[in-house]
Write a structure and sequence with these properties.
The protein has 3 domains: about 5-120 and about 195-210, Maf protein, CATH 3.90.950.10; about 120-185, Dna Ligase, domain 1, CATH 3.30.1490; about 225-270, no CATH class. It is about 25% helix and about 30% strand. The protein has 5 helices and 12 strands. The chain starts with 5 loop residues before the first strand and ends in an 18-residue tail after the last strand. The mean pLDDT is about 95.
Length: about 280
């Protein structure tokens, strides 16, 4: 389905470094990066341009726009979101979506990777000591920083700060006209190796989805859409909250398949049973 085709990667932040290799290796296709394609118009992490849609709609629009821009019928795009973890709100997380759209075969497949491995952070500071402390925690200089002024009428900011001399110079420049300075991690992919690795993991999940074909129609993307608990307790056989089965569904023909014992366990420990260990 994909062999020898050309695929556009909707990025201006060098995401092709981690997206292209697994796709080219597995499917023998050719990945292309568009020329003069501005992905910032769908939103920036620093807030100059607000993201108007949710992450899924944004990544889909970005992918389709890049395909139209270059006249391709096959494309990939990614979109990241940063903030409290959806399940554990007290820690920050990097939530990455990667989508593949194939107009020729009327196919859209999305993969998602949520990781708590992120340096995402921001702080309002007054001193060089505070700046250096933040920089060390943010893994600077391998991970770039952003400095901007605060509480002034004229907004100034510098992105992609990648060395100590530049960091000090920009800090003093902003501090001369503002009582405090805001320092942030630069979350653009080419400025943040940790984020780039999460995008790579999401891409590998996408590859696995593309390799999973529907048993009925053989279209790629046969994937888990739901799960059911009820794995029986090893002691009393009472249904526990642990996963009993995964439900797979084909987005093309809607074929549904239930697969029991997805984690190769037919019984759950009595430690996790509400009857044996209430």
């Amino acid at each position: 389905m994909f062999e020898a085709r050309k695929l556009i990667i909707a990025t201006q932040h060098q995401k092709e470094k981690v997206i292209a290799p697994p796709l080219e290796k597995q499917f023998k296709l050719k990945c292309i990066v568009p020329i003069m394609f501005d992905t910032d118009k769908w939103g920036t992490f620093t807030g100059e341009i607000e993201r108007k849609e949710d992450a899924y709609q944004t990544v889909r629009q970005k992918c389709l726009a890049a395909m139209d821009h270059e006249g391709f019928d096959l494309g990939v795009a990614s979109e990241g979101s940063f903030g409290p973890h959806p399940s554990f709100g007290f820690i920050n997380a990097d939530d990455e979506l990667v989508i593949l759209i194939d107009k020729k075969n009327n196919l859209e497949i999305v993969a998602r990777e949520i990781s708590i491995t992120t340096n995402y952070n921001s702080r309002e500071i007054k001193t060089i000591a505070e700046l250096f402390e933040f920089a060390e925690q943010a893994k600077f200089p391998s991970h770039h920083l952003i400095l901007k002024n605060s509480k002034t009428s004229s907004f100034e900011q510098t992105k992609g700060i990648s060395n100590k001399e530049q960091l000090i110079r920009v800090f003093h420049q902003l501090k001369s006209s503002s009582e405090t300075v805001i320092v942030e991690t630069d979350m653009r992919a080419m400025c943040n190796p940790t984020r780039m690795s999460v995008i790579e993991k999401a891409t590998l999940k996408l590859v696995n989805k593309l390799l999973s074909a529907c048993p009925q129609c053989l279209i790629p993307g046969f994937d888990i859409v739901d799960a059911k608990s009820g794995l029986p307790c090893e002691n009393c056989s009472f249904p526990t909250q642990s996963t009993l089965l995964h439900i797979y569904q084909c987005q093309h023909c809607q074929f549904i398949l239930e697969k029991k014992f997805p984690y190769n366990k037919t019984k759950e420990s009595a430690m996790y049973c509400d009857m044996c260990n209430p």
